[in-house]
């Protein structure tokens, strides 16, 4: 009997948008844009009565929202901006002057929205999700329209009252909800992992095979542009930490040690830091599966293209295998730092990266599963405790460490018999979910404990 099938698109998992946090930037921007659309669908009489828009943020959105740029992202969404087409420089410029209000279209008029309309609530809010936002259109003390949204990681949002899984027009031809079910389908239909994921994607999105392949190529190019930008850009990252970029220095070191046994790791570290530093600076990145983990897969795919010289079709197959692992974690646990701690972000990215490498190397599904399982297993319990709420310390270096673990997980899974692996991917995802549930909220993207308390030393 099949569990509830996964119906997430590859391009919902790999989304393009501005950093530094998919759950705090891309998700809130999408929610605010949706609220804007609903405001403008109201009857004219209700639009005319309204005199203000207020946004109330709870949980991690309140605790670290300032450092993550949540307030700017919400204003951008209300202005009609979309993540993939947002100018990162224009986004960073929003709310710099607290006296400036931004005109939001409400029917045939506009309402000003500024910092005074965004409320970082400290009180507990009864919600099933850690990242909750309540948006209200008001007329004096009356509420004209209210919507409650949840940012559930990776830029995915839910609106209160809507089902978590949106109905699909065409169901996937190969429905699965666990790795065991997925492997059974591969055996029964004699398919490779990438081919099965590709056929499901075609059915779910209505895209042709060539269109899916073209979009994967575009996603890879967005990733690699972030790496290239990060290798060039120097100086300090935004925010009070005053953290200096390391990627360009590491890259020059790696080039100088080209014949050293260490150069391979230094190159990989440089690529991962480059993309992650671009994310921290609010640049355009790809959620993989989140913005906070947007250095792992870009670093590994950049290495695979430029050092291993894999062709496009091999890289695409690897990306589809990585997506399959991301789907399983999102479906059966969570990819949100506010829900799982950093094991939900870097842990998932590392597992996805290990699967990517195994698929590109032409390994069977047993090795791909083992690589992914090892990747998650050795991130279990990892806290999410960013200093100052910025996606900088420990997040940037953690991306590089996650990629190195992914590579080692690939080596461990493929250097012996994968059948010797005692723990299944399904089992470790269950453990991940239980660990995230048991972990203190202080260690889940609130900056209230752990490394975040060392901010005074920075």
UniProtKB/TrEMBL annotation:
A GO molecular function held by the record: L-serine ammonia-lyase activity
GO BP annotation list: gluconeogenesis
Entry EC no(s): 4.3.1.17
Catalytic reactions on record: L-serine = pyruvate + NH4(+)
Domain of life: Bacteria
Cofactors demanded by this protein: [4Fe-4S] cluster
Pathway(s) where this gene product acts: Carbohydrate biosynthesis; gluconeogenesis
N-terminal signal peptide: none
Residue ranges constituting the Serine dehydratase-like alpha subunit domain according to the UniProt record: 189-452
Domain (Serine dehydratase beta chain) ranges: 9-161
Keyword field: 4Fe-4S, Gluconeogenesis, Iron, Iron-sulfur, Lyase, Metal-binding
One matching Pfam family: SDH_alpha
Family: Belongs to the iron-sulfur dependent L-serine dehydratase family.
Classification via PANTHER family: L-SERINE DEHYDRATASE (PTHR30182), L-SERINE DEHYDRATASE 1 (PTHR30182:SF1)
NCBIfam families: sda_mono
Record's protein name: L-serine dehydratase
Organism: Fibrisoma limi BUZ 3
């Amino acid at each position: 009997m099949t569990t509830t099938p996964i119906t997430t698109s590859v391009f919902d998992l790999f989304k393009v948008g501005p950093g530094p946090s998919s759950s705090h930037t891309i998700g809130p921007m999408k929610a605010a844009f949706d609220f804007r659309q609903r405001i403008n669908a109201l009857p004219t009489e209700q639009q005319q009565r309204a005199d203000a828009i207020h946004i109330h943020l709870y949980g991690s959105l309140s605790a670290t929202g300032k450092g993550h740029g949540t307030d700017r992202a919400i204003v951008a969404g209300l202005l009609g901006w979309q993540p993939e087409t947002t100018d990162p420089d224009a986004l960073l410029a929003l709310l710099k002057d607290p006296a400036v209000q931004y005109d939001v279209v409400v029917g045939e008029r506009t309402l000003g929205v500024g910092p005074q309309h965004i409320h970082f609530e400290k009180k507990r809010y009864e919600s099933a999700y850690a990242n909750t936002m309540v948006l209200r259109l008001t007329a004096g003390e009356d509420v004209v329209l209210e919507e409650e949204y949840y940012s559930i990681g990776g830029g995915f949002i839910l609106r209160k009252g809507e089902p978590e899984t949106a109905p699909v027009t065409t169901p996937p031809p190969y429905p699965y909800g666990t790795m065991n079910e997925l492997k059974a389908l591969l055996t029964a239909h004699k398919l490779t992992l990438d081919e099965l994921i590709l056929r499901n994607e075609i059915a779910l999105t209505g895209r042709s095979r060539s269109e899916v392949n073209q979009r994967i190529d575009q996603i890879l190019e967005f990733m690699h542009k972030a790496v290239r930008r990060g290798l060039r850009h120097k100086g300090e990252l935004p925010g009070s930490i005053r953290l200096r970029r390391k990627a360009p220095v590491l890259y020059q070191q790696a080039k100088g040690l080209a014949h050293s046994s260490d150069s391979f790791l230094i190159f990989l570290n440089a690529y991962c830091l480059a993309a992650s530093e671009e994310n921290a600076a609010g640049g355009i990145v790809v959620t993989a599966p989140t913005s906070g983990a947007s250095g792992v897969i870009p670093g590994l795919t950049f290495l695979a293209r430029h050092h291993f010289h894999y062709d496009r079709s091999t890289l695409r197959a690897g990306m589809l295998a990585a997506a399959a692992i991301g789907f399983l974690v999102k479906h059966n646990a969570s990819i949100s730092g506010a829900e799982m701690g950093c094991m939900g972000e870097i842990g998932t990215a590392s597992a996805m990266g290990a699967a990517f490498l195994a698929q590109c190397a032409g390994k069977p599904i047993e090795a791909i599963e083992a690589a992914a399982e090892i990747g998650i297993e050795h991130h279990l319990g990892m806290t999410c405790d960013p200093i100052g709420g910025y996606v900088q310390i420990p997040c940037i270096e953690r991306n590089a460490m996650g990629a190195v673990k992914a590579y080692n997980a690939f080596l461990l899974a493929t250097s012996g018999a994968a059948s010797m692996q005692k723990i299944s991917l399904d089992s470790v995802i269950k453990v991940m979910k239980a660990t995230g549930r048991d972990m203190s909220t202080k260690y889940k993207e609130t900056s209230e404990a752990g490394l975040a308390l060392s901010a005074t030393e920075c």
